[in-house]
Write a structure and sequence with these properties.
The complex is a heterodimer of chains A (307) and B (228). Chain A is α/β, with parallel strands linked by helices and 307 residues long. Chain A is built from 12 helices and 10 strands. Helix content of chain A is 41%, strand content 14%. Chain A is globular and about 55 Å long. Chain B has 10 helices and no strands. Classes of the chains: A alpha/beta (307), B mainly alpha (228).
């Protein structure tokens, strides 16, 4: 996958896939296109809103919930999303993703991002193969070393896999602001395509070193925990959006939080996770319209800090 | 990785599912095994009746029924339903089966020397156990608002353990500790999980079991001889 989509191509693909189109934002703004960012190492455009699966897709053999999650994924694709991120760490999430992709026949649509999460430095290919089998795909677009676990041997193998064409991009991940010093050192020394780290309107440590370094080194950035695991909604949802939010392109809190993240020039995409179709629609709204400028971003951070 | 690194983790970092998925485990197992819940209820009533009787054959039968309950909740709920979303549940499933084997051995070989041949009827013990077990079964219903989530003895691990601990008082203290280790471990694991999930009503269950288990390490009921 990996082509730059115009609105016409996008709609044609949807129609061909037989998917119903419920893109109010798109329809409300004729000519609007999904906001994309180029992956620095290739120039391939990536929609700025991806999808995480942490906690949300680990539903075991519960067919009722598998069906609900399939609808969430369907909505994600309908709104122009492509990048889905998972990990062997997330219980049955890989299996459930495979079932959902089967149900939607969407293996060709997804930009598959997964992780290597094992202390066994020699098990990189084996774990990649196991995850691919669960997803039902031939290769992952992106494979990442999860939380720097045994990162040296895994990264060496991933480099070889990329050279062999077994993956298209490689990267490393961290979350919750952990091990940023080690993370920066690896970013400085290794030929990474992607890094994944925690960045949101409250957790902004990455702005100090990692985000500038990513720009300098030409590394794409995936922002995880964009809602701080849901706690941003619990804290702020009852508060009113500021009057100037619409000027910054934000019609609800989901758009407010997500647009703050993806408007940072170093960020390539954010990966919110949800179990509800309605929430997915709200999240995907952040992929359309205008993004806040630097002054508005400061205003957004100040507003949230002041609540 | 330094020790400080590990301290930066919280319990929620290790939990890969939400309360909706967890509570639906009870609904699913009840839907899949309907109408065999009648068997679980009959087993509860039978255990209560045997506790009332209190003689040696009754004690052996109670331990055998407990063993069956542990096998069923371990191999069924923990390994088939809970394990796929939470790997440690599968490990606990195997431990439950091991505990069932221990209970079976105890039921078959323990002599209960010195226990009265014709003990007085322990009506209060049987009734209290039945009432406690029935009430604890309803916590999952209260938490989820769904009757199909009822957590029956012999199906749901928390209720099975909570109901088993008082029955383990049938064993003398010098061997009882061996049977209390798993309830202790499970209660801590379950309490941590339910607290992190925010299922506060259900959190009461492992907390209650934890208190019962700790008390059971020291407490020993006095056998009562029938005056007839």
């Amino acid at each position: 996958m990996a082509t730059q989509w115009t609105r016409r191509q996008f709609l044609a693909t949807l129609a061909a896939a037989g998917l119903s189109v419920r893109m109010s934002a798109l329809m409300a703004a004729p000519g609007a296109e999904a906001i994309t960012r180029p992956i620095p190492s290739s120039g391939e455009p990536l929609p700025v809103i991806g999808m995480g699966t942490w906690r949300t897709f680990n539903v075991g053999g519960d067919q009722h919930l598998v069906s609900e999650r399939t609808q969430v994924l369907k909505t994600f694709f309908e709104w122009g999303g492509t990048l889905v991120d998972s990990s062997p760490m997330y219980g049955s999430a890989d299996d459930v993703m495979g079932e959902a992709l089967d149900a939607l026949n969407a293996h060709e649509r997804v930009f598959g991002a997964n992780k290597i999460w094992t202390r066994d430095g020699g098990a990189t290919r084996e774990q990649d193969r196991a995850s691919r089998r669960k997803w039902g795909i031939d290769r992952f677009d992106l494979q990442q070393v999860h939380n720097l676990l045994a990162w040296e041997p895994h990264l060496e193998t991933l480099k070889q896999m990329k050279a062999d064409g077994d993956i298209r991009y490689l990267g490393i991940t961290t979350s919750h602001g952990r091990r940023h010093r080690d993370f920066a050192r690896i970013m400085e020394q290794e030929p990474l395509d992607f890094v994944q780290l925690t960045y949101n309107v409250l957790d902004r440590e990455a702005e100090q070193r990692l985000l500038p370094l990513a720009r300098e080194r030409g590394i794409a950035v995936i922002a995880n925990r964009p809602f701080q695991g849901g706690s941003l909604f619990r804290r702020y949802q009852s508060e009113p959006l500021p009057g100037w939010a619409a000027e910054a392109g934000c019609g609800n809190w989901a758009e407010f939080f997500l647009k703050f993240i993806v408007s940072h020039p170093a960020v390539t995409c954010a990966i919110p996770a949800t179990t509800k179709v309605k929430h997915m629609e709200e999240n995907m709204g952040a992929q359309y319209g205008n993004l806040p400028d630097e002054q508005q971003r400061r205003q957004m951070a100040d507003y949230v800090a002041g609540l | 990785m330094t020790d400080v690194f590990w301290f930066s983790y919280s319990l929620s970092d290790f939990l890969m599912f939400g309360p909706e998925v967890f509570l639906r485990l009870f609904v699913r197992i009840n839907q899949d095994f309907w109408p065999w819940q009648g068997g679980a209820v009959a087993m509860m009533v039978l255990v209560a009746g045997l506790l009332v009787r209190g003689d040696k054959p009754a004690k052996r039968a109670v331990l055998l029924l407990l063993a069956a309950a542990w096998i069923w909740s371990g191999a069924g709920f923990l390994m088939e339903y809970y394990g796929p979303i939470n790997i440690p549940a599968t490990w606990f499933g195997w431990a439950f089966i091991l505990q069932a084997a221990l209970l079976t051995v105890a039921a078959l070989v323990w002599p209960w020397d010195g226990s009265p041949e014709k003990p007085a009827r322990q009506w209060h013990a049987g009734t209290a156990w039945l009432a406690m077990t029935a009430l604890l079964s309803l916590l999952a219903v209260a938490q989820s608002g769904n009757w199909q989530a009822i957590a029956l003895f012999g199906i749901a691990p928390d209720v099975t353990i909570a109901a088993s601990v008082p029955c383990l008082l049938l064993l003398p203290r010098r061997v009882r500790w061996l049977f209390l280790l798993l309830p202790l471990l499970w209660s801590v694991f379950s309490a941590a999980t339910l607290w992190t999930l925010g299922t506060r009503l259900m959190f009461v269950l492992p907390l209650f079991t934890l208190v019962l288990t700790v008390m059971s390490f020291w407490f020993s009921p006095r056998p009562v001889q029938n005056r007839d």
